[in-house]
Design a protein that fits this description.
Blueprint lengths: L1 H12 L3 H6 L8 E2 L2 E11 L14 E5 L2 E3 L1 E5 L5 E8 L8 H13 L6 E7 L3 E3 L7 H8 L12 H12 L6 E8 L10 H10 L2 E7 L51 H25 L4 E3 L5 H12 L2 E8 L7 E8 L5 E4 L2 E3 L4
Parallel strand pairs: 6-7, 6-9, 9-10, 10-11
Antiparallel strand pairs: 1-2, 2-12, 2-14, 3-4, 3-13, 5-12, 7-8, 13-15
Length: about 350
Amino acid sequence: MKIISAILFLMLLTLPAHLLSQTSQPDSKVQKGGKTLVSVPVTVSDREGRYISGLKKEDFNVFEDGARQNIAFFATEDEPLSVALVLDTSGSTRDVLDKIKGAARDFIELLNPNDRCQIATFDSQVRILNPFASDKQTLLSSLEKARTATEDGTVMFRAVEQVARQSFADIQGRKVIVLLSDGKDFGSPVTKDELLSLLEELDVMIYTVFYQTGASSAKLAVAPDGTIKQEKETPKPKEKKAPKKKKGYTIFIPVPGEVYTEQDVKLTEKASDAEAVNSLKQMSDATAGRFYTSDTPNLGGIFKKIAGELRQQYRLGYYTKDASDAAVHEIIVKVERADAVVRARGKFRSKPL
């Protein structure tokens, strides 16, 4: 019996390291006694926005629907990342795709050796350019495959759904989507509401980066938190009264179809951008991610901010009761510090609608 025990012990020692690490990385799909482990990514900062590191499991309290939960899993900011870079390559990116690729290259260089990355693009179709990989040269080569579309269509909602549901299906640990887009969706088979409902079931964080397209004079003023700034209207100059014309016959020639003025076009573009900002912000808010806005020259700096924040996060896990319906459960995370500002996953849906 001692010999058998010794052999079993040696077999455990020789198991690959990645298999051993998986046993300490519970995922939200893990079942235990009819219950599901809910994974909750958490970012903690002080009131000045400085990240607070070094917190322990005992510093956190998690509540589901007001009831305090036992924290069954706790991971610090050192936990490896699985991140999907999802890039908009629709026709609107034709003039800026090289700058987008440059910012993406900078982000890839910031990944740690144990991190894994997937690159996906979308226009009228979703394209997965590589499986999750850690080798940076492989990732950079995949990035070079990104091309601007020649056909109309921007299936942003479909791209997020496919990556969140399929690409991360067998992935454990911290899961992140970095979505770069002007936020406009044309042709997705999934609606925004359906996508947000799906995101409530998953533990994938989404960081969205909004950049504007269209006429430069029709740009929205967007605050860092995604709030649309109201622009003051410039008073129109008083029109000079035309001299009275002599009485005569007036001929009216009808104009076929509707005629849009330049001002009409600008207002339409701004309304479209406002809806796009709202869509991106809702995805980030639903998953405890963050919304950013940027022009293409500053994308590299935004990507560095995202990479820096991802290094400062915690991940908690608790076993939820076995719910037989598709109800949405509220999650609240509190930290035992007076100056702590907590951003965490706020909802969990145990079963799909």
